[in-house]
Design brief:
5-stranded parallel beta sheet, mainly alpha, single chain, DNA Cyclobutane Dipyrimidine Photolyase, subunit A, domain 3, globular, 25 helices, binds flavin-adenine dinucleotide, 5 strands, 5% strand
């Protein structure tokens, strides 16, 4: 006879009851006497991780929706939210609720691994059985990594070759139809006071009193899902609603258009569209509101039944999901994937505003101020005030919605790094980290390395035009008009380069450039040429982030010498600045046209 089980199911980034191999495993444990679905409201995430309001609201909505789903399976059930770190919360619950097993969905990323190893040690000491079950990806990133000789997967082809040997993507798990009761939820444990004694990364967002950790089980002692106001936050601005119900609505709507599914071609979707031209499923995948196998097999069924011509990998939907897995396998196997220093897959390029480290190799925070010109560019990029409407519209959309199209991400990432600004991808990644709802610890740094040609991709001479590129999908500038309303009345001809409009046109549009909207912060073509020359040098020297020359600073010295020798100077000369000012002034006074501007950028 097996012993009765008292099970803690620890929800993390799997806020669903559908397609959850871990949940099904938990429910199949023998003779379950009590089943507690729980969430640890972890201060190291709440205070120690940069998270914008839109992601917070999405997460809270997703937790609430999950809780409702659990209640719909059993009216005595809900998500039990405990305020505290897993190391504090879990041993309390194990002890007080007599837990025999703890089950969770495996998370292969670096931060989660450290946390989970710590919990496994604690559980072992207390005699609690840990069951962690892969399910977040198409294939377990650790398994793929092992089959790749312990190395990160750096191309999709590599990932595909390995996973072919594993077999097919598993079918989605069954959705449970019943849930056992929780046992007694009384806790004798209570916390007197909680103090976060490190830097609160989200302090700048708080407008009210933060009462988040005043009570272990919530203000009413009922394990309720926290609210934005308990965190001291104002309402969010996004129109994207969280939750597994929304996720399934979105997926089913997509699947109900067979042609769209079967002919999905990522490069041919429009970043300029006002309504997302891709699935917008990423925020839901990020928090596990939908299972990845549900999407995979949902698309498979539709595509197989479709009679017309179909698109292929990598641009079809399967390719998109595979990219997500490829980055997860790279991150799981590559130390320091999220930064340059110590990252052996990342090319070393002497960007401005890189992370700074002390002599022990510890990152210096708050970050020391860099070159003024770099700081000025970075700030303008972040705030959507570069004077390039396409970049500004994308950045403002990102800030207000928490999501932008993949090719919009391409544009802004290319501009900040290798396109024009020559600023470290680490800084751009950090802004995405804060503002994206779908922020992912593998996909975000991975794509930033791709876009900056630091890893995964090396065609650094392919740079997105700041005017010509958005024009390929929308000549009317609809997205610019929405997110940069000060430019709303400009004629189509000038919408992506309003500084080239004659003053009379600017006045008629009610927006004088340099006064009501910024002049471009840099010369697109001159800076592009400078970036190309410098990146060519970096490629020639071929240093990677973990090379001793990078760690000692020798790489910077060698690159500087090469830039000087090759004429790829790092600083803008006074003369160039004056010339640029004069040219912009002339254009503003009327001798510039959009056609002329586009021609000059070619
Ligand atoms: C600089 C930069 C940073 C990025 N940061 C993130 C991030 O933090 N989190 C994130 O989920 N995606 C990130 N992406 C990838 C991609 O832009 C988004 O996944 C995609 O735009 C989400 O929209 P969608 O759900 O409509 O995508 P769809 O095109 O509908 O694709 C479906 C799903 O496939 C996956 N996917 C598609 N493309 C990629 C890709 N290139 N890399 C990884 N997964 C992909 C996503 O899970 C996506 O939801 C980033 C891309 C760039 C260029």
């Amino acid at each position: 006879m097996s012993k009765p089980s008292r099970v803690l199911y620890w929800f993390r980034t799997d806020l669903r009851i559908t397609d959850s191999p871990a949940l099904i495993t938990a429910l199949s444990l023998p003779d379950i006497k009590a089943f507690y679905p729980i969430w640890c409201w972890d201060p190291s995430y709440i205070y120690g991780h940069r998270v914008g309001l839109n992601r917070w609201s999405f997460l809270l909505e997703s937790m609430k929706d999950l809780s409702d789903q659990l209640t719909s399976l059993n009216p005595r059930q809900k998500l039990h939210v405990c305020r505290g770190s897993p190391e504090e919360v879990l041993p309390v619950l194990w002890r007080e609720w007599g837990i025999t097993h703890i089950v969770w969905e495996k998370d292969a990323n670096a931060y989660a691994k450290i946390r989970d190893e710590c919990i496994k040690r604690l559980a072992k000491e207390k005699g609690v059985v840990v069951v962690d079950v892969p399910g977040r990806h198409l294939f377990d990133p650790d398994l793929v990594g092992r089959m790749n000789g312990g190395k990160p997967t750096m191309t999709l082809q590599q990932w595909q070759n390995i996973t072919k040997k594993i077999g097919k993507v598993e079918q989605p798990s069954l959705t449970p139809t019943i849930l056992p009761d929780p046992g007694d939820t009384t806790l004798r444990y209570s916390r007197k006071e909680y103090k976060w004694d490190k830097v609160d990364m989200n302090a700048h967002l708080r407008t009210g009193k933060d009462t988040c950790f005043d009570h272990f089980t919530g203000p009413k002692g009922d394990f309720s899902v926290p609210t934005l106001s308990q965190m001291g936050y104002p309402p969010s601005t996004t129109s994207i609603r969280g939750g597994t119900t929304q996720a399934h609505l979105r997926l089913n709507t997509f699947l109900s258009h067979p042609q769209a599914v079967a002919t999905f071609s990522k490069p041919h979707t429009a970043p300029t569209a006002l309504e997302p031209s891709t699935t917008l499923i990423s925020p839901y995948l990020k928090f596990g509101c939908v299972g990845v196998r549900e999407i995979w097999w949902g698309c498979k069924r539709v595509v197989e039944a479709y009679k017309g011509e179909k698109t292929k990998e990598p641009e079809n939907m399967f390719g998109q999901l595979e990219f997500r897995d490829m980055y997860a396998c790279a991150e799981a196997l590559q130390p320091h994937f999220e930064r340059i220093r110590g990252n052996s897959v990342c090319r070393y390029i002497d960007w401005g505003l890189q992370n700074q480290y002390d002599e022990r190799g510890i990152e210096i925070l708050p970050r020391p101020r860099g070159e003024e010109e770099d700081e000025r560019r970075f700030e303008a990029w972040r705030e959507g005030c570069t004077g390039f409407p396409w970049i500004d519209a994308c950045m403002r959309q990102l800030k207000s919605e928490g999501w932008i199209h993949h090719l919009a991400r391409h544009s802004v990432a290319c501009f900040l790094t290798r396109g024009q600004c020559y600023i470290s991808w680490e800084r751009g990644m950090e802004v995405f980290d804060e503002w994206l709802i779908d922020w992912d610890p593998a996909s975000n740094p991975g794509n930033w390395m791709w876009l900056s040609c630091s890893a995964f991709f090396s065609q650094y001479y392919r740079v997105y035009g700041l005017v010509s590129w958005p024009q390929t999908t929308d000549k009317t500038g609809a997205l610019v008009r929405k997110y940069c309303p000060e430019l709303e009345k400009f004629p189509d001809k000038y919408i992506y380069a309003p500084h080239t409009a004659p003053l009379s046109v600017q006045e008629a549009a009610g927006c004088v450039i340099g006064q009501d909207y910024p002049l471009p912060i840099l010369d697109e073509r001159a800076e592009k040429d400078r970036c190309l020359a410098r990146i060519k040098n970096a490629y020639q020297l071929g240093f990677r982030g973990a090379d001793p020359e990078v760690l000692s600073g020798e790489a910077d010295k060698r690159l500087k010498e090469l830039h000087e020798k090759s004429g790829a100077s790092t600083v803008k000369s006074e003369k160039e600045r004056d010339e640029e000012k004069g040219r912009l002034k002339r254009e503003r006074e009327g001798d510039g046209t959009l056609d002329g501007y586009v021609k000059r950028q070619k």
